[in-house]
Design a protein that fits this description.
By secondary structure, the chain is α/β, with parallel strands linked by helices. The chain is built from ten helices and ten strands. Strands 6-7-8-3-9-10 form a six-stranded mixed β-sheet, sandwiched between helices. A four-stranded antiparallel β-sheet has the order 2-1-4-5, with helices on one face. It is globular, with a radius of gyration of 18 Å.
Protein backbone atom coordinates (compact mmCIF):
# COMPACT_ATOMS: atom_id res chain seq x y z
CA UNK A 1 0.00 0.00 0.00
CA UNK A 2 1.18 3.57 -0.71
CA UNK A 3 1.89 5.93 2.20
CA UNK A 4 -1.37 7.42 3.48
CA UNK A 5 -0.29 10.92 2.45
CA UNK A 6 0.31 9.98 -1.22
CA UNK A 7 -2.59 10.09 -3.65
CA UNK A 8 -0.55 9.21 -6.78
CA UNK A 9 2.64 7.26 -7.25
CA UNK A 10 4.29 7.36 -10.69
CA UNK A 11 6.77 4.61 -11.53
CA UNK A 12 8.97 4.55 -14.65
CA UNK A 13 6.37 6.41 -16.72
CA UNK A 14 7.13 6.64 -20.45
CA UNK A 15 4.87 8.21 -23.08
CA UNK A 16 5.15 8.18 -26.86
CA UNK A 17 3.19 9.98 -29.56
CA UNK A 18 3.83 7.76 -32.55
CA UNK A 19 7.62 7.40 -32.74
CA UNK A 20 8.31 10.50 -30.63
CA UNK A 21 9.00 9.92 -26.95
CA UNK A 22 7.37 12.69 -24.93
CA UNK A 23 8.27 11.51 -21.40
CA UNK A 24 11.06 9.20 -20.21
CA UNK A 25 11.26 7.29 -16.92
CA UNK A 26 9.28 9.68 -14.72
CA UNK A 27 9.17 8.71 -11.02
CA UNK A 28 7.39 10.85 -8.42
CA UNK A 29 4.63 10.87 -5.82
CA UNK A 30 1.77 13.35 -5.55
CA UNK A 31 0.90 14.31 -1.99
CA UNK A 32 -2.67 14.18 -0.73
CA UNK A 33 -4.33 17.52 0.13
CA UNK A 34 -1.46 19.52 -1.34
CA UNK A 35 -0.88 21.66 -4.42
CA UNK A 36 1.79 20.17 -6.68
CA UNK A 37 3.19 22.38 -9.46
CA UNK A 38 4.74 21.00 -12.63
CA UNK A 39 7.14 23.51 -14.20
CA UNK A 40 9.59 23.47 -17.09
CA UNK A 41 10.24 24.90 -20.56
CA UNK A 42 7.73 24.61 -23.40
CA UNK A 43 7.66 21.17 -24.98
CA UNK A 44 9.11 19.27 -22.01
CA UNK A 45 5.94 17.17 -21.48
CA UNK A 46 4.27 18.99 -18.58
CA UNK A 47 0.75 18.71 -20.00
CA UNK A 48 1.42 15.16 -21.16
CA UNK A 49 2.34 14.21 -17.59
CA UNK A 50 -0.77 15.93 -16.24
CA UNK A 51 -2.99 14.04 -18.71
CA UNK A 52 -1.45 10.74 -17.56
CA UNK A 53 -3.18 11.23 -14.20
CA UNK A 54 -6.65 10.84 -15.75
CA UNK A 55 -5.80 8.83 -18.87
CA UNK A 56 -6.64 11.70 -21.20
CA UNK A 57 -3.76 10.60 -23.42
CA UNK A 58 -5.88 7.54 -24.28
CA UNK A 59 -7.92 9.92 -26.45
CA UNK A 60 -4.89 10.97 -28.56
CA UNK A 61 -4.29 8.97 -31.73
CA UNK A 62 -0.92 7.22 -31.65
CA UNK A 63 -0.31 7.84 -27.95
CA UNK A 64 1.24 4.99 -25.95
CA UNK A 65 1.90 4.87 -22.21
CA UNK A 66 4.20 2.49 -20.34
CA UNK A 67 4.95 2.29 -16.64
CA UNK A 68 2.63 2.64 -13.66
CA UNK A 69 0.43 5.44 -12.34
CA UNK A 70 -0.99 4.31 -9.00
CA UNK A 71 -4.06 6.12 -7.61
CA UNK A 72 -4.39 5.12 -3.94
CA UNK A 73 -2.30 2.07 -4.73
CA UNK A 74 -4.24 0.95 -7.83
CA UNK A 75 -2.60 1.15 -11.26
CA UNK A 76 -5.00 3.23 -13.37
CA UNK A 77 -3.43 1.77 -16.54
CA UNK A 78 -4.30 -1.79 -15.57
CA UNK A 79 -6.47 -3.48 -18.26
CA UNK A 80 -9.11 -4.08 -15.59
CA UNK A 81 -9.55 -0.33 -14.96
CA UNK A 82 -12.26 1.66 -16.75
CA UNK A 83 -10.75 5.04 -17.77
CA UNK A 84 -14.19 6.68 -17.62
CA UNK A 85 -14.51 5.59 -14.00
CA UNK A 86 -11.05 7.02 -13.25
CA UNK A 87 -11.98 10.36 -14.80
CA UNK A 88 -15.06 10.55 -12.56
CA UNK A 89 -12.69 10.79 -9.56
CA UNK A 90 -10.38 13.32 -11.15
CA UNK A 91 -11.50 16.80 -12.16
CA UNK A 92 -9.80 18.66 -15.03
CA UNK A 93 -9.55 22.43 -15.55
CA UNK A 94 -8.15 23.54 -18.88
CA UNK A 95 -6.06 26.50 -19.97
CA UNK A 96 -8.98 28.31 -21.58
CA UNK A 97 -12.28 28.40 -19.67
CA UNK A 98 -14.70 26.07 -21.45
CA UNK A 99 -18.21 26.51 -19.99
CA UNK A 100 -21.00 24.75 -21.85
CA UNK A 101 -23.41 26.99 -23.81
CA UNK A 102 -25.97 26.49 -21.06
CA UNK A 103 -27.06 28.37 -17.96
CA UNK A 104 -24.73 28.73 -14.97
CA UNK A 105 -26.94 26.28 -13.06
CA UNK A 106 -26.96 23.68 -15.83
CA UNK A 107 -23.18 23.87 -16.20
CA UNK A 108 -22.70 22.84 -12.58
CA UNK A 109 -25.56 20.33 -12.64
CA UNK A 110 -24.36 18.65 -15.85
CA UNK A 111 -22.07 16.02 -14.32
CA UNK A 112 -24.54 15.31 -11.54
CA UNK A 113 -27.31 14.65 -14.07
CA UNK A 114 -25.05 12.42 -16.17
CA UNK A 115 -24.16 10.40 -13.06
CA UNK A 116 -27.81 10.00 -12.10
CA UNK A 117 -27.57 12.12 -8.96
CA UNK A 118 -30.54 11.46 -6.67
CA UNK A 119 -30.02 14.20 -4.08
CA UNK A 120 -31.14 17.84 -3.96
CA UNK A 121 -29.75 19.35 -7.18
CA UNK A 122 -30.21 22.97 -6.06
CA UNK A 123 -28.26 22.35 -2.86
CA UNK A 124 -25.49 20.52 -4.71
CA UNK A 125 -25.12 23.33 -7.26
CA UNK A 126 -25.03 26.00 -4.55
CA UNK A 127 -22.46 24.03 -2.55
CA UNK A 128 -20.20 23.65 -5.58
CA UNK A 129 -20.45 27.34 -6.47
CA UNK A 130 -19.66 28.29 -2.88
CA UNK A 131 -16.59 26.04 -2.84
CA UNK A 132 -15.47 27.69 -6.09
CA UNK A 133 -15.93 31.14 -4.48
CA UNK A 134 -18.48 32.11 -7.11
CA UNK A 135 -21.88 31.83 -5.40
CA UNK A 136 -22.18 35.45 -4.24
CA UNK A 137 -21.37 36.73 -7.73
CA UNK A 138 -23.88 34.57 -9.61
CA UNK A 139 -26.68 33.60 -7.21
CA UNK A 140 -29.10 36.14 -8.79
CA UNK A 141 -28.49 34.89 -12.35
CA UNK A 142 -28.19 31.14 -12.09
CA UNK A 143 -30.43 30.62 -15.10
CA UNK A 144 -28.61 33.08 -17.35
CA UNK A 145 -26.02 31.95 -19.87
CA UNK A 146 -22.64 30.99 -18.47
CA UNK A 147 -21.06 32.54 -21.57
CA UNK A 148 -21.96 36.02 -20.25
CA UNK A 149 -19.55 35.62 -17.31
CA UNK A 150 -16.09 37.17 -17.32
CA UNK A 151 -13.10 34.96 -18.13
CA UNK A 152 -12.17 34.59 -14.47
CA UNK A 153 -15.74 33.78 -13.48
CA UNK A 154 -15.97 31.24 -16.30
CA UNK A 155 -12.82 29.52 -15.03
CA UNK A 156 -14.21 29.36 -11.48
CA UNK A 157 -17.47 28.01 -12.94
CA UNK A 158 -15.48 25.25 -14.65
CA UNK A 159 -13.89 24.49 -11.29
CA UNK A 160 -17.36 24.39 -9.66
CA UNK A 161 -18.53 22.04 -12.43
CA UNK A 162 -15.64 19.72 -11.59
CA UNK A 163 -16.22 19.93 -7.84
CA UNK A 164 -19.90 19.01 -8.17
CA UNK A 165 -19.10 15.35 -8.86
CA UNK A 166 -16.92 15.17 -5.71
CA UNK A 167 -13.54 14.34 -7.25
CA UNK A 168 -10.55 13.34 -5.19
CA UNK A 169 -8.01 15.09 -7.41
CA UNK A 170 -8.20 18.30 -9.47
CA UNK A 171 -5.85 18.70 -12.43
CA UNK A 172 -5.25 22.23 -13.73
CA UNK A 173 -3.46 22.88 -17.03
CA UNK A 174 -2.26 26.51 -16.89
CA UNK A 175 -5.64 27.62 -15.50
CA UNK A 176 -4.66 31.31 -15.27
CA UNK A 177 -2.81 31.84 -18.55
CA UNK A 178 -5.85 33.44 -20.21
CA UNK A 179 -6.81 35.57 -17.18
CA UNK A 180 -5.93 39.07 -15.98
CA UNK A 181 -3.93 39.55 -12.73
CA UNK A 182 -7.01 40.14 -10.55
CA UNK A 183 -8.77 36.99 -11.80
CA UNK A 184 -5.49 35.08 -11.48
CA UNK A 185 -5.18 35.97 -7.80
CA UNK A 186 -8.74 34.77 -7.18
CA UNK A 187 -7.96 31.41 -8.78
CA UNK A 188 -4.73 31.15 -6.76
CA UNK A 189 -6.57 31.89 -3.50
CA UNK A 190 -9.16 29.30 -4.49
CA UNK A 191 -6.48 26.68 -5.12
CA UNK A 192 -5.01 27.18 -1.66
CA UNK A 193 -8.46 26.84 -0.07
CA UNK A 194 -9.37 23.77 -2.13
CA UNK A 195 -6.14 22.00 -1.14
CA UNK A 196 -7.64 21.51 2.33
CA UNK A 197 -10.10 19.04 0.79
CA UNK A 198 -8.60 17.99 -2.55
CA UNK A 199 -5.27 17.03 -4.08
CA UNK A 200 -4.36 19.54 -6.79
CA UNK A 201 -1.82 19.22 -9.60
CA UNK A 202 -1.15 22.35 -11.65
CA UNK A 203 0.93 22.93 -14.77
CA UNK A 204 2.20 26.50 -14.91
CA UNK A 205 4.77 28.54 -16.85
CA UNK A 206 4.60 31.21 -14.15
CA UNK A 207 7.44 30.75 -11.65
CA UNK A 208 5.92 33.26 -9.22
CA UNK A 209 2.63 31.42 -9.32
CA UNK A 210 4.29 28.07 -8.61
CA UNK A 211 6.16 29.64 -5.69
CA UNK A 212 2.98 31.28 -4.33
CA UNK A 213 0.48 28.44 -4.50
CA UNK A 214 2.25 25.09 -4.46
CA UNK A 215 3.52 22.88 -1.67
CA UNK A 216 5.53 20.59 -3.95
CA UNK A 217 7.18 21.33 -7.31
CA UNK A 218 8.38 19.04 -10.10
CA UNK A 219 10.84 20.51 -12.61
CA UNK A 220 10.93 18.86 -16.04
CA UNK A 221 13.22 19.61 -18.96
CA UNK A 222 14.09 18.03 -22.31
CA UNK A 223 16.83 15.50 -22.93
CA UNK A 224 18.94 15.76 -26.10
CA UNK A 225 16.31 13.79 -28.04
CA UNK A 226 13.60 16.18 -26.70
CA UNK A 227 12.02 13.57 -24.42
CA UNK A 228 10.76 15.10 -21.18
CA UNK A 229 12.72 14.08 -18.09
CA UNK A 230 12.26 14.88 -14.40
CA UNK A 231 15.25 16.88 -13.15
CA UNK A 232 14.18 17.61 -9.59
CA UNK A 233 11.17 17.16 -7.32
CA UNK A 234 10.69 18.36 -3.78
CA UNK A 235 9.05 20.90 -1.55
CA UNK A 236 8.49 24.21 -3.31
CA UNK A 237 10.30 26.12 -0.57
CA UNK A 238 13.40 23.95 -0.94
CA UNK A 239 13.38 23.78 -4.73
CA UNK A 240 13.09 27.55 -5.14
CA UNK A 241 15.48 28.55 -2.36
CA UNK A 242 18.06 25.79 -2.55
CA UNK A 243 17.76 23.74 -5.78
CA UNK A 244 19.93 20.65 -5.88
CA UNK A 245 20.47 20.71 -9.65
CA UNK A 246 22.05 23.55 -11.63
CA UNK A 247 19.48 23.05 -14.41
CA UNK A 248 16.73 23.82 -11.88
CA UNK A 249 18.55 26.91 -10.62
CA UNK A 250 19.09 28.18 -14.16
CA UNK A 251 15.45 27.72 -15.04
CA UNK A 252 13.88 29.34 -11.99
CA UNK A 253 16.30 32.31 -12.19
CA UNK A 254 15.46 32.84 -15.87
CA UNK A 255 18.83 31.84 -17.32
CA UNK A 256 17.16 29.46 -19.74
CA UNK A 257 13.72 28.31 -20.80
Amino acid sequence: MPPANDVFEVKKLNVWYGNFQSLRDINLTIKRHAVTAIIGPSGCGKSTLLRCFNRMNDLVNGARVAGEVLLNGQDIYSPAVDPTEIRSHIGMVFQKPNPFPKSIFENVAFGLRVNGYQGNLEEAVESSLRRAALWEEVKERLHKSALALSGGQQQRLCIARGLAVEPEVILMDEPCSALDPVATLKIEDLMRNLAESYSIVIVTHNMQQAARVSDMTAFLTMADDRAGILVEYGTTAELFSNPRDKLTEDYITGRFG
